[in-house]
Amino acid sequence: MSSFISASPIVQSPPRSAVRLTDVRKTYRSGRTRVTALDHISVTLTPGSFTAIMGPSGCGKSTLLHCAAGLDQPTRGSVWLGETEITALKPKARSVFRRDNVGFVFQAYNLMAALTVEQNVTLPLLLARRRTDRTRLEYVLAAVGLADKRDRRPAELSGGQQQRVAIARALITKPHAVFADEPTGALDSRSARQVLDLLRRATTELGQTVVMVTHDPVAAAHADRVLFLADGRLVGHMDSPTVAAVTNHMTHLGEW
Ligand SMILES: Nc1ncnc2c1ncn2[C@@H]1O[C@H](COP(=O)(O)OP(=O)(O)OP(=O)(O)O)[C@@H](O)[C@H]1O
């Protein structure tokens, strides 16, 4: 895979925060009971940072990712992506904002089976009725190591290659932030490392902001910072994480 550096400039004059949550609370109704999935979540992620979110099963990681990305609306509190308060947008406007400004990478890749690699990568531009910047496309395809596979369909690719297509698709629009939910959950360790290196390089070489939910201390150790959640609350963070330090902290948090 080639370097991100040679092909595209770093984002200029970024806002002070890429993602900001202020006193976010999310409750779900489940029959007669109310589940508090998130409570008093306030966090600011700087542009170009790589943040992992960890915590025991059911602690609210996916809910936090979905609220931060505008896929779900908090019950209370505000979420900002760059200069836009997405919690103040009406559902339609939020969905358009998300389509044009947010990148997603899911465990299950979510590629369109009938489309080629290149068509999958440029799909967000098509949906946003934006012209494809060929330079950006070539550079993203080269960076994820798939320039020579641009005419293949997803079924003709390995899992790791499919996830790299999903990352290229997430980066093509130069989003405010890329949100990744267990992006390496279905991959072998070598493919997982390639995907994590890609996400890391998207931050260091492109200035992209990446937020990743993971259960895996090896994955989390690629981030600049790990946020630890328990029972819907932020209970700690770790800068410059190592596999051993994250494993140790998670063991103290309980089941995971
Ligand atoms: N749509 C929903 N309706 C009711 N409760 C929900 C809903 N979505 C999530 N929850 C509850 O909110 C809490 C947090 O769920 P969430 O999926 O965010 O946790 P998680 O940390 O991502 O879990 P896991 O690691 O197992 O994927 C859980 O108690 C869950 O049961």
From TrEMBL:
GO molecular function: ATP binding; ATP hydrolysis activity; transmembrane transporter activity
Keywords: ATP-binding, Nucleotide-binding, Transport
Gene Ontology CC, one term: membrane protein complex
CDD domains tied to this protein: ABC_MJ0796_LolCDE_FtsE
InterPro entries listed in its UniProt record: AAA+_ATPase (IPR003593), ABC_transporter-like_ATP-bd (IPR003439), ABC_transporter-like_CS (IPR017871), ABC_transpr_LolD-like (IPR015854), MacB-like_ATP-bd (IPR017911), P-loop_NTPase (IPR027417)
Limits of the ABC transporter domain: 19-256
Protein name, as recorded: ABC transporter ATP-binding protein
Lineage per the UniProt record: Bacteria, Bacillati, Actinomycetota, Actinomycetes, Mycobacteriales
